[in-house]
Amino acid sequence: MTVLTLTVGAPAAGGSCVAHTDEATVFVRGALPGETVRATVVGSIKSGRILFARTTEVMTPSEFRVTPPCPVANRCGGCDLQHVHPAEQAEWKASVLRDQLMRIGGTTDIAGEPMATAVTVLVVPVAGAEPGLGWRSRATIHANASGAPGFYAYRSREVVPTTHCPVLVPALQPALAHRWPGGAQVSIAASSDRVTAVGDVGRSGVPAGWSSRAWLEQAAVGRTWRVASDGFWQSHVEAPAVLTAAVRQVLVPRAGDRLLDLYSGVGLFAGALAEDVGITGRIDAVEVDTTAARLARRNLHDCPQVQLHNADVRQFLAERTTAQPGEVADLVVLDPPRAGAGAATVRLLTQTGARAIAYVACDGAALARDVRTFAELGWHLATVQGFDLYPMSHHTEAVALFTPDNAEATGRAVG
């Protein structure tokens, strides 16, 4: 087993920091920039020129190092930044996002502003909770062979049992004191009216007072949303309000606008922006998942300006841009999966005639790849704002605004 003494450099994607030896680049977990650590090599690629290592001893700690709030922090794979002060986690994530936009996206500035100030990540507090804790309202737990609940270890299917997870909202904590069927996988979710557990468990097998129903209702942005218990809904309790406000701010929708809501899920953005475009406007919400589309139909039954389409986004765009090139929409909001929108979809988006596109990204590298494609097609990244909606982990959410380089060419000025 190889142990290295390393001086640690900048954060990298995935929760590690970068260090160097004479022969290799080393990605070190459990370290902070500026520290000197001893780290055990746990893997390698490219004939040993790239190494992966785990910190085993901190020789010169950073001023931002803290004691992790969770006793299984070094074994559970869910939270990889618990050793970083909560306020510094936002700067860590901003540094990674800047690097991705520059290195992968080819961006050197944003609307003339240097990356150091143009790209920031905002902390999103939760009322009544300590910084970085008590924010997660949805999770997947796993039981070991004897039924003890926990979470997978880092890059492993080994279950790390635990009786408490500090990032979960209080209502979900009983799941970790419950005895589940051996080997069970259970999706747990909490809302103001219900706590659910679905998966390898029957109606009688959930904690007292919990439900095994396949759906629950979430209150957000002045509406009530029916959501699948094991389907997609933002995990952070403040995320729906934060992200819809950010999208509204960058798009500035107006009465009469035609808006595309792509990868629309259960209808969050369509419902939040329906009042902005008014009864004279139109929102086409497109979602390929049948369950989510069905729930959206129920959630938005009182919004006549919203038209719902249970369809593949790329196919929908191809049909619309072929039939109405340059006249499909005034505005677009898209919230793609972690892989991003992709070059083919981006190409179609630039043919819609939209004056602005708001892109909700959950992966900085995927966003950066799409930034490069937008630029090649004559669109630029006008703004980007990161949000720390996954505290204690390396994940970041961001809202980016794209506008055409020649806005007059669309016939619709921005703003």
Task: Outline the structure in words.
The chain has 415 residues and is an alpha/beta fold. Helices cover 21% and strands 29% of the residues. The protein is built from eight helices and 22 strands. The strands form five sheets. The chain has an eight-stranded mixed sheet with strand order 8-21-22-20-19-16-17-18, sandwiched between helices. Strands 1-4-5-3-2 form a five-stranded mixed sheet, with no helix packed on it. It has a five-stranded antiparallel sheet with strand order 11-10-9-12-13, with no helix packed on it. α5 links the parallel β17 and β18. The protein is globular. Residues 408-415 have low confidence and may be disordered.
List strands and helices in order, with pairings.
Blueprint lengths: L2 E5 L8 E5 L4 E5 L6 E10 L4 E11 L25 H18 L5 E2 L2 E2 H4 L2 E3 L14 E6 L5 E4 L6 E3 L23 E6 L4 E5 L15 E6 L2 E6 L10 H13 L6 E5 L5 H10 L4 E5 L3 H10 L6 E4 L3 H11 L7 E4 L8 H7 L6 E6 L2 H13 L2 E10 L8 E8 L11
Parallel strand pairs: 3-5, 8-21, 16-17, 16-19, 17-18, 19-20
Antiparallel strand pairs: 1-4, 2-3, 4-5, 6-7, 9-10, 9-12, 10-11, 12-13, 14-15, 20-22, 21-22
Helix pairs in contact: 1-8, 3-4, 6-7
